[in-house]
Specification:
single chain; 176 residues; Rossmann fold; 3-stranded parallel beta sheet; 3-stranded antiparallel beta sheet; 6 strands; 16% strand; Tobamovirus_resist_UPF0261; UPF0261_C; UPF0261-domain-containing protein
Length: 176
């Protein structure tokens, strides 16, 4: 159930405005419960349905995921100001958000620490890369509405920038 090698890189490489967040990053997906590898059977598992069993990521895994996200983002940004990273620290999924079975049991802080550490030098050089930390769950309406509004703003900014670049190159004879 991998998202593939291009996860977190495709939009960046194409300079498409994007908001990156952490939807269900606290869950490891497996098939039916009997397909969960033996080494994980003692972990915190939740049978979502007959076809999907979810395992709660532990603090060490969350820390590694923060590092990995930073590596993917930094390694692929052509126009960093077209990327915003939003962290919903009160829950990366409905399972870890308020009243979810994993509420308060996922290492979001370790994820955030490693993400910020991995982005630190890059954030210093490119302050337009947006990192926003919110004390809400990812499925809260306010988070979704704010993210959608910000994405629309970013799309408009990108369109204006692309128009200026297009006009510059045509005006200066660089495009025929």
């Amino acid at each position: 159930m991998s998202a593939g090698e291009r996860r977190l890189t495709a939009a960046s490489r194409m300079a498409i405005p994007q908001i990156i967040s952490t939807g269900a990053l606290d869950c490891v997906n497996f098939g039916p419960r009997d397909t969960v590898p033996e080494r994980f059977r003692g972990r915190d598992l939740l049978v979502h349905n007959d076809s999907v069993t979810l395992m709660r990521a532990n603090e060490e895994e969350m820390a590694r995921l923060g590092t990995r996200m930073a590596e993917r983002v930094v390694g692929s940004l052509d126009k960093p100001w077209r990327t915003a990273i939003w962290l919903p620290m009160a829950g990366f999924s409905s399972l870890s958000s308020s009243r979810g079975p994993w509420e308060g049991r996922v290492g979001f802080e370790r994820f955030r620490e490693n993400l910020v550490k991995g982005l630190a030098g890059f954030l210093d050089k490119e302050p337009r890369l947006e990192l926003r930390v919110e004390e809400v769950g990812i499925n809260e309406e306010a988070f979704a509405e704010s993210a959608a509004c910000r994405l629309l703003e970013m799309m408009k900014e990108a369109e204006e920038e692309d128009r200026r670049e297009h006009n510059f190159f045509h005006r200066n004879g660089r495009v025929r």
